[in-house]
Design goal:
40% helix, 2 domains, alpha/beta, TIM Barrel, three-stranded antiparallel beta sheet, homodimer
Chain lengths: 379, 379
């Protein structure tokens, strides 16, 4: 472990967009950054060498999943998630709040925390802010997330307010439970649904507690891109300029680009790997459904602009054959390509911000995504 | 394509075992060689870089599967199987005879060939020696296999004799259909069930036709190791010394070692990759069932003696976790490790033959396989 201080260095801005580097105990992350999701201590269908080779510098793991299997104490005995899975870069852990709400059965929420039954074997578990933070500490998360309730969408103003305020009390308890270490950070999570006043109140509350970074939670839960962007517009201005900002669980390429334009620095999403397992390939000219018979004789690679073997060295015809034959290699190549595509987008947008041409780049990117390959009907 | 003449160079022998190199248009193969199986133009669950890194120098593909999907003409348009799948080394193709018998539906065998229905979509196909060889030529197989009938086990002497003699007439037709090219070879396949006189008759018939190599077919079909070894004992002496000998579809590590002791040079088997997908790991001290809970806290890697990341850099506990969580990475790592283990065995036995200590090596290997890790009950 190095003794690097945790913190964001901003190299430049272009409008609200920022480009920089986040320094951590386990390595430097170029921002805006996309973080592949390694829920159960594996980025699904990918070797970590390939995750690294795409330019990924930080990955996610999930408190909820690891508590249930293989168990937090077991992973701790192996030196934490990073050592357990062989990842030597920075790791961000989800606090488990979101997954308890979306996956667990028979959950009971109280001021203390959440009691729930495992979606795997029905076993009973109790998670509190203190317990979640303790586990993330034990599992050697470079970035620990505060324990929160992800307010569902839609929610009335009253429901969103009550939920957000409990999350803010939990944020304070999370902060108290966090064990500061050089190069490690704790992020607070802004809630408040789609209500501007609640988002502002939440952001201010978190600033008052003080965190190493600020996440925007409770979005990408069905509200749609326009409401999501509107909510970012009324949230981000309340976050401190000098700290990293993380939009949780987002998203499609154009969601990410639009959020970067609104000042977000970090993203995570299962989409590139999940799409890889459902035969979707993201490309410069929009997504392709590799099950489609039109690819059967297409000698072109997926996307030559992406610097990745999976993107450049295999014909669409071969990938289509693998998918039709239900061969694992098809999922492996598409997952690898999709993560590489996402990281190429991030590298391109970082360069565009650095060179103060982000708006023009974004316009070109959106136009190309709209279907230059005649693939729009695929999506 | 180089202009290398196809042929086996024998560096040394130890008893009946031989060590050498097979020269082909697409590269040199150290023998005895294990050939990973790439049925549908992919070694299941593996990237070709990893296949190569294990020391694999030649892989298999299957005429039967590729006819059905994606279609032989389509693969031919892409320059053959090697170009279609991105493999730049030698490729051996199965003639389809075995798969027609074991997989296809509604098959009718006549002197002309076999009519069958696809196991995928029921479509009707007709395969003859001429058609099989033509397809293998078109698909750029470095080594083409004669079209034969794999005699089932058990079979009476009469049935085995009739089946073998038809295969010998098909072998002659295969030879006539084969288009000789420098560095390419056609292998005949010895049949005759477990009957010494029939195996001798078949071997002599093939020698009369003349091939670049000689395969022993119709074994590993349920007869057991002892009968298989007995059959090799009465077959191999009838094969020419200077040509490569290939035992088809074999087998477990000790099957391979025993067959090498009987003068076999080449092997193929789905076992390392198939076992990888069913959570079995081959190791120096015998196979492990990675589903077994006893691995849950085991920090040891699978087998440090195998020079492969998958064998050395991941704890058994982590692999157990991946398997229990049904994560693709578990299958990917086990498949990779298993192929690497097989290739380590081949490298070790080649060195032992070269140094005239094969019998002693074999004894140690068999003793270690018998369960030095207390794992015998796993198998």
């Amino acid at each position: 472990m190095t003794n690097t201080a945790f913190g964001l260095e901003i190299f430049g801005t272009d409008g609200a967009a920022r480009v920089g580097q986040l320094h951590t105990a386990h390595g430097v992350i170029d921002t805006p950054a996309f973080m592949p999701v390694g829920t159960a201590a594996t980025v699904k269908g990918m070797f970590l060498d390939h995750v690294r080779s795409t330019g990924s510098q930080i990955i996610l793991a999930n408190t909820y999943h690891l508590i249930l299997r293989p168990g937090a104490e077991r992973v701790q005995r192996f030196g934490g998630v990073r050592k357990f899975m062989n990842w030597d870069g920075p790791l961000l852990m989800d606090s488990g709040g979101y997954q308890v709400m979306s996956l667990a059965k028979l959950r009971t929420i109280s001021e203390d925390g959440v009691t729930f039954a495992s979606h795997i074997d029905g076993s009973k578990h109790h998670l509190t802010p203190e317990r979640s933070i303790q586990i993330q500490n034990q599992l050697d998360a470079t970035i620990t997330m505060a324990f929160d309730e992800c307010t569902p969408f839609p929610a009335t103003h009253d429901v969103a307010a009550d939920s957000m305020r409990m999350s803010m009390r939990w944020a304070k308890r999370s902060k108290n439970a966090f064990e500061p270490r050089p190069g490690y950070g704790l992020f607070g999570i802004v809630q408040g649904g789609v209500y501007a006043d609640l988002r502002a109140e939440s952001a201010e509350a978190l600033r008052g507690i003080d965190f190493e970074g600020f996440a925007v939670g409770g979005l990408a839960v069905g509200e749609g891109q326009e409401l999501m962007f509107n909510t970012l517009d009324v949230t981000v201005p309340h976050l401190p300029h000098e700290k990293p900002r993380y939009l949780m669980g987002v998203g499609k390429p154009l969601d990410i680009v639009g959020a970067v334009a609104r000042g977000i620095d970090m993203f995570d999403c299962v989409l590139p790997t999940r799409s890889g397992r459902t035969a979707q390939a993201f490309t410069r000219f929009g997504p392709l459904n590799m099950r489609n018979a039109k690819h059967a004789d297409d000698a072109r690679p997926l996307d030559e602009s992406v610097p990745c073997d999976a993107s450049r060295n295999y014909s669409r015809a071969y990938l289509h054959h693998l998918i039709k034959s239900e061969e694992l290699l098809g999922l492996m190549l598409l997952s690898w390509h999709n993560v590489a595509f996402y990281q190429k987008v991030m590298a391109d947008l970082r360069a565009a911000i650095r060179e103060k041409r982000f708006a023009a780049w974004m316009q070109t990117f959106a136009a190309e995504q709209a279907g230059g390959d005649g693939e729009a009907a695929d999506d």
